[in-house]
Amino acid sequence: MHPFRTIYIDMNSFFASVEQHEEPYLRGKPVGITAMEGDVGCLVAASYEAKYFGVKTTMSIKEAKILCPKIILRPSRHRLYVRYNQRIARIFDQYAELEYVRSVDEFQIALGGTTSNLNVASKLVKTMKDALKYEIGENLKFSAGIGSNHLLAKIAGKLEKPDGMQWLSPDNMPQRLSNIPLGDLPGIGRGVLFKLNSAGIHNCEQMYNLDPRHARKIWGSIIGERFIRLLQGEDIPLETTKRGGYGNSKMLAPENRTLKNAYLVSRWLIEKSVARLRRDNYTASQFSLFLRIQNPRNRWGHSVKTHYSQDTAHFLDINRRLWRMMYSQKHPYLISSISVHLGNILPLNKRSGEMLLPMEMAKKNDRERLSRTLDTINKRFGASTITYGINKAHNGFFERG
Question: Residue 199 to residues 108, 181, 189, 191, 216: CA-CA distances in angstroms?
Fold first, then answer.
């Protein structure tokens, strides 16, 4: 049998399970986790008790209540889920080689030596399941996939839910996926699926037997070749991702959709984004603002190129000018979503000096040093202790808890 190199762990209904663990009243009941307070918007997670009635993630709350009238809604608390993620990671790391924390509810374990044997790897999964139950509680469960590489392990982890365990390697491929639709595989979105179907590929067996070089042509990139080689069992490491910029997006709650409040939320998003830019010692030379207008129904977006900067006040000034431009063109009444983005980033230590600006090579200017000082104060005494004028916090999925 081929050696196994990865265990992929996918926590089952993680957000809902955490809430059930925290609040015993919720255990055994259908629970839906919402992106915002109240009965508007959609679900970001659902417990298995809710899924039994057909409730799904991203389903509107209205539709979920039709399918499951007794569903109990709780607002998401992402920071709480991150704390549980860290607790779970520490537990796994005691028993195995935790290679990657892939997301807030997904973990990747490296196998090698004796653990590359299927029986040993299976026992390791059971050990981690028992440890999680003992150290945190029986509400938090996971499905595990054991594979000869990270892609096969991830696919295997989705074959048996909840609380399951399956394996994939060249020894049982592609037969094991004979009943799995192509679109259910990770990385096969609508666009790629259309390209595959257009090339006469309609099932997993046909895709498995593709020449990797042909896959590169179908995908239009090296990603296709990598995907097929992984599917065929080759051990290809994960690619290191490169950051392209910093930004924040927000679907606005009803009370923040007025023009005034939406603008103040945009200021808050910019302060958060530029603070992260400074934290990582980057500068940006492009600012983009994208708005979805609710009334009249429309969209608007614009980008501005500027000198490389990490000065919050500088980007707030660009933002103000863009809002004035947008208003003169659209005259909106309500804004439903905002996205800000700081692009074309460059490390501070690689920034050249500017003769016409108070800016020395690879050094912060006075305003940037002031911004850094404010970051230090806010980190010590709490976020938004000092702000750049008036803004409006819009804590949602990633800020609560």
Answer: 33, 16, 15, 13, 12
